Amino acid sequence: MQAQELVKKDTTIILLSDLTVQLYCAQALDDLYNFKFDQAEKRFLWLKQKYKWHPLPYFLMGLIEWWKIMPDLTNKSYDESFLAYMDTTILISENLFKKHPAYKVESMFFLAAAYGFKGRLYSEEERKNWTKAAAAGKQALNYLEMSKGYHSLSPELLFGDALYNYFSVWVPENYSSLKPIMWFFPKGDKALGLKQLREVSYNAFYTRTEAMVWLMRIQNSYENNKQEALHLSDYLNKTYPDNPFFHRYNARALYSAGRFIQAEPVCKNILERIDSGMLGYEATSGRYASFFLGQIYEARNNLTEAKKYYLLSKMFSEKVGATESGYYLYSLISLGEIAEREGKKTEARYYFKEVKKKSGRKDEAFKDAKKRLRKLEKEE
């Protein structure tokens, strides 16, 4: 059935809120977030056949590609297919927006979401395409602004608003050079943004998990609310036990909260899954898990095990070229410290010198290594 016929038949239909479609998609979304991509794709392809005139199936297919990217942002092999699905979502949404008033509200949601996801990919550290990120972000903001006032139609529409409210304040607070850019946009509200993210995570269907992911990351990295971040990471890891990103984040949250007894088996399970070649488990997860285990065993004064895991973290970091990351640099410092405690001063000196080579002069790791090298020189 063509879009024109559907519009004539029912001018109030909102596919985002259609319970029949939601029931059909429920298992597919569970499969998507649990890294059962083949099963999710089969259902989304059927949805695409039935609703090929609507952006929803193309956006969901794009989400599959997005979650293939998430565990290892250095892997760009899925970028092209992801961007193609987002561009198709935009093309179909623009058509509905211009020609079919009944779908205007949904079109605004998908346009904001697709442009938002494109901007997010371009802005990742591994892409750093700021021009494209800014262009996509501007488009997303335009459609977010248009969709205000329609949130009562679907909780999905609140997702973009929540992110805007939070980050429109957070960005200029943390990046003063971007303050002038934000003068052209409406003033946000961080507290409201967090409240809205919680509302989406409780009530939305399609964006529920994405809202939880953002809330977890914000609370852990920006708001220092480790307890809520840990609660969310526990929930996501238990609900989607085969998702390597959630698995890794749960290990990180447990470690940050000082729950070493709980973190230990979680980290070891990550390493076991990497060894078995399980989908999505790779070196990035490995460098996190092995570093945490190194810290755990060092705290127990088990230097043999600590050294083993720090060396593993070093190896995983080198594998993905993350030799300027904190996990790599502090693995080297810890290895140097252990060598020093074992009386192996030449080995200790080697690790501290490596830290100085791989870090910037203003980095804390550089300063720490420099002090340790001076101490070794004085002892000679």
Any idea of the CATH class of the domain at 1-140? Mainly Alpha
- The stretches of 5 or more residues where confidence is low (pLDDT under 50) are 1-12
- Give the percentage of residues in beta strands: under 5%
Helix content: over 70%
Level-2 CATH architecture of the domain at 1-140: Alpha Horseshoe
Order of helices and strands: HHHHHHHHHHHHHHHHHHH
Name the overall outline.
Answer: elongated
Plain-language structure description:
With 380 residues, the chain is mainly alpha-helical. The longest helix is centred in the first third of the chain and has 21 residues, at 79-99. The termini are far apart. It is elongated, with a radius of gyration of 24 Å. The protein has 19 helices and no strands. Among the domains are: 1-140, Serine Threonine Protein Phosphatase 5, Tetratricopeptide repeat (Alpha Horseshoe); 148-224, no CATH class. This is Tol-pal system protein YbgF. It comes from Chryseotalea sanaruensis. InterPro entries: TPR-like_helical_dom_sf.
